[in-house]
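Case study 2.
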Amino acid sequence: MTGNPPGTPAERRDARNTAPGGAFGERRPAGDPAQGSALGVPAERREGLQKVTGIARYAAEYSLPGRAHAWTVPAAVARGRVTAVDTWAALALPGVLAVLTPDDAPRLAEPGDAMLAVLQGPHVPHRGWCVALAVADTLETARAAARAVRVTYSAEPHDVDLDPGHPHAYEPAEANAGYPGRVENGDPESAYATAEVRVDTTYRVPPLHNHPMEPHASTAHWDGDRLTVYTSSQGGTTVREVLAQLFELPEDRITVVTEHVGGGFGSKGTPRPDVVLAAMAARRTGRPVTLACPRRYLPTTVGHRAPTVQRLRLGAHADGRLTAVLHEATTHTSRVKEFVEQAAVPARVMYATPALLSTHRVVPLDVPSPSWMRAPGEAPGMYALESAVDELADALGMDPVELRVRNEPEREPGSGKPFSSRHLVECLREGARRFGWAERDPRPGMRREGPLLIGTGVAAATYPAAAVPATATARALPDGTCTVRINATDIGTGARTVLAQIAADALGAPLEQVRTEIGHSDLPSAWLAGGSMGTASWGWAVHDACAELASRLAAHNGPLPADGIETHADTAGRADADSPYARHAFGAHFAEVAVDTVTGETRVRRLLGIFAAGRILNSRTARSQFTGGMTMGLGMALTEHSTMDPAFGDFTEADLASYHVPAHADVPHIEADWIDEDDPHLNPMGSKGIGEIGIVGTAAAIGNAVHHATGIRYRELPLTPDRILTGLLSEG
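Prediction:
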């Protein structure tokens, strides 16, 4: 039989799109509210079964034929030079294949990130810097060989002490992410000096460490001049670009696989030494090599949140309207490269004021290079700002929720841009209603339960909403499925699932008929998972590819070709276009704490977060991200800290036995929810990033609750029992 089937082309398309096994099975018009949407539903993570059954493979679990293992030798001095490396004892161990040293390691092109210039010379910029690498048949032998290496140093005097008055402190031109180091509007000094009510206070946040569940690891394999790496990274496209530059290879000769990543919190946002060292060892030995960093090496190897000393000066009229906001942050960087924690940036976003100063100072020290950690800048900066706002509320005798509402800006204070959307007041009002804020006795120290002092606190939160260019393809197949391909990375956030939901919504197709392929550099290139921009960036490209595919299918007559129909999207020029709007997510945090006057222990009884973060694409994974961030903020407030030993130039809390992260028992009741927000100025989905705003504001809400409980203002994190007891005893 030849010729077309009966009916008009539109009738034939309708029949094909609704028939079992057709182009998309129960296809529906994209975004049809009567039929429902794939967006917003609590879809389960697609890789969940693989993870809980152990099928999912991580970077160190690729058992390639002939695989060897590597172990680093960290520098034992805080500053100096390597004068000799004795490898004889290490090489004499059975099974040892090689020991790479600064004298004989493969040479690399000069990296853009100086943290990656490993084994390229004798200089030691900080304790923990890699000075040799042992490679052996087994992990145990590699570790034994590394311990057998003897390194001789010429040590030099070192300086690791962060002091705001340090003679080498300077004001950088830029803080991280391209923010100007300094923003000044009006005459902040004069406005503060003449304010009716003034607060001048300083807050300190210690060094913090990322500590993902899966430590940094890479497996590298050379096949002639082709390099394949399996690495725990937040962005395979970036890893390939960096390796191509270091090893002077075309990018198409490098394959980077990041199929499953066990967390990163920013520390895997850019390549770390493990992937470079694994590739160097594989090239030297001619065998696949796995390098998995021991957890105790992470603090000196992969970055940390730099400590900050933040001075806040707030001036206001007696009615609570701000007249001056001055936020001055001092932090440290390494001598390897400049990295400036942008802690003073939130002051440019939050509150209306005619006079604003937001500035940074940075001190170069002989410390490991600081780097990205979840909500860099905003997490420590909002802790200090929101704590100072609470102090101002006390000085004014005003409710802290009402003080924030009274100073709600019409435009972004730092830039003067209108907000694309801003529903902070709604978050504060809804949070206060659900938390029972109206029943709160504002007087500190009034609620007691035996030896326990009970208090409640509030803080606001913000995080920028942005996107960067990405590419994606979508292919419709004759079996009724669609495959979406993009080199996104799922670091535990549920990216596979949410991208499938975006695709299904754009196609008007059932979610189960959409497949996603991510985590491989041979896929269309995309930016890394970081800055709360992953889904916004990848989803934009996926949406565009699928919207185009839907149009192509609607115009197609007859059966699909055997290889299907494919479309390609590239959001360059749009996702990175300048916006006339200030784009941010906002939130409000509420906390209730119980402070034990006998032990000094603080227990968080309740945490509530209400967020305005655009369209929520998956309610299940979104709530997980919000509560995960809030839990991390609880750790920042009560348990997490690191200490720099001035004598040895090393972090003393180098493992999870000494660096305390919250456990389930520390979080008895935590709730996150959101308000409906429609923002047409973001991306086709109307979504904002949610991975980081949960941590922003949590520590301040808890600190403010501790003040309400005790009447004592603690200004240095974490609020450990020794600090609490010292304050209570001094007041007693």
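Confidence is low (pLDDT under 50) at residues 1-23, 25-34.
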